[in-house]
């Protein structure tokens, strides 16, 4: 398969390594040439971790989007979710043919936002599917090398109506893909929204004082932080039930992904289980308040979640409180809009109309 990978961060680099090793033809694109410079100089990517250790040659490493997607069977978007709208606009600007798109990850509302960019221009929406979370736990420790500490065992996969081709290609590429009924189920299975937001907010003083010089999932994850996470997770699952989805708890979702060990004892508590996970244990805290744990997981995680909750008619006091406090914490650094209901094309929808939209049904 010919796959155009959009995004040269740790997720995109890990995807290039794994998919190339599987025999697929991969092209790597990034808007910023700086992120590509070290890879381009070597002609590929050095890698260590769970994907092995070595060097993978990448035949095309380019900031030319049109050349990167030309003839591709699939566009694999491995960008931060706050860049989804810009990526969709960039594809429109090059008059991209209707190539299927897989958002890895879509997180909360990614497929909605991506499709809305096309719809807003009066254009046909490509086949779009999304994963609930990134298929890798990874960091770029050096500019030309990706360290992949975890590879997901199971991630939720769903498509918008008309997205069957993208979903089929996703399952072909990733054996870990677990199809669920619709993109509300994937969006409400966004682990990072629950995993990052409470710790990032409650640890803000420590982050500002130390520049993130502590382990986020071990030193930064106290039992108190985990209690807030648990309440937020309960709200997430209540919203899921309102849309007809009985979603697994964060504890069990992380076991499925592989970031909590399968042997973890639920009686020991959520904090203990997360702290013991091998994939995340050495990951540092954010280095400041402009880190993606704030900008992405609040404005592109909690904000669309609150839009879903409002449509579902479910009260979410913890999510509302976290969002309000983070808005004040960031002040002028806070995004102006983020992934709002309007950006997702679901503003003023009833629950029945939204459920009909994700299932491709008409609703009067």
Describe the protein's architecture and organization.
There is one protein chain. The protein has helices spanning 10-21, 33-42, 65-69, 84-93, 110-120, 164-173, 183-187, 191-202, 204-210, 223-242, 250-257, 270-275, 292-312, 317-330, 341-344, 351-359; strands spanning 2-6, 25-29, 44-49, 54-57, 60-62, 74-77, 101-103, 128-131, 136-142, 145-151, 155-159, 177-179. The longest helix has 21 residues, at 292-312. It has an eight-stranded mixed beta sheet, sandwiched between helices. The protein has 364 residues and is an alpha/beta fold. The model has no long low-confidence stretch (mean pLDDT 96). It is globular, with a radius of gyration of 19 Å. Helices cover 45% and strands 15% of the residues. It folds into two domains: 2-187, Rossmann fold (3-Layer(aba) Sandwich); 191-358, N-(1-d-carboxylethyl)-l-norvaline Dehydrogenase, domain 2 (Orthogonal Bundle), CATH 1.10.1040. Strand 6 (74-77), helix 4 (84-93) and strand 7 (101-103) form a beta-alpha-beta unit.
């Amino acid at each position: 398969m010919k796959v155009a990978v959009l995004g040269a961060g740790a997720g995109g680099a890990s995807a290039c390594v794994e998919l190339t090793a599987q025999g697929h033809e991969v092209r790597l694109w990034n808007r910023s040439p700086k992120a590509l410079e070290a890879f381009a100089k070597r002609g590929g990517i050095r890698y260590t971790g769970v994907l092995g250790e070595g060097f993978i040659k990448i035949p095309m490493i380019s900031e030319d989007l049109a050349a990167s997607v030309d003839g591709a069977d699939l566009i694999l978007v491995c960008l931060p979710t706050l860049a989804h709208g810009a990526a969709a606009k960039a594809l429109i600007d090059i008059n991209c043919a209707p190539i299927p798109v897989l958002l890895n990850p879509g997180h909360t509302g990614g497929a909605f936002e991506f499709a809305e960019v096309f719809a807003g221009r009066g254009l046909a929406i490509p086949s779009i599917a999304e994963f609930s979370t990134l298929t890798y736990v990874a960091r770029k420790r050096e500019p030309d090398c990706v360290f992949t500490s975890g590879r997901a065992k199971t991630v939720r996969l769903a498509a918008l109506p008309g997205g069957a081709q993208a979903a089929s290609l996703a399952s072909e590429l990733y054996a870990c893909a677990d199809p669920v009924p619709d993109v509300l189920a994937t969006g409400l299975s966004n682990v990072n929204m629950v995993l990052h937001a409470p710790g990032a907010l409650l640890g803000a003083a420590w982050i500002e004082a130390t520049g993130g010089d502590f382990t986020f999932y071990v030193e930064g994850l106290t039992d108190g932080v985990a209690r807030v996470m648990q309440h937020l997770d309960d709200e997430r699952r209540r919203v899921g039930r309102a849309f007809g989805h009985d979603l697994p708890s964060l504890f069990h979702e992380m076991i499925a992904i592989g970031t909590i060990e399968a042997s973890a004892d639920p009686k020991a508590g959520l904090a203990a289980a997360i702290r013991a996970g091998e994939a995340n244990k050495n990951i540092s805290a954010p280095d400041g308040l402009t880190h993606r744990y704030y900008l992405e997981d609040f404005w592109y995680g909690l904000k669309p979640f609150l839009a879903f909750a409002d449509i579902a008619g479910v009260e979410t006091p913890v999510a509302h409180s976290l969002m309000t406090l983070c808005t004040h914490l960031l002040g002028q650094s806070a995004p102006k809009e983020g992934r709002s209901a309007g950006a997702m094309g679901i503003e003023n929808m009833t629950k029945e109309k939204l459920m009909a939209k994700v299932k491709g049904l008409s609703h009067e």
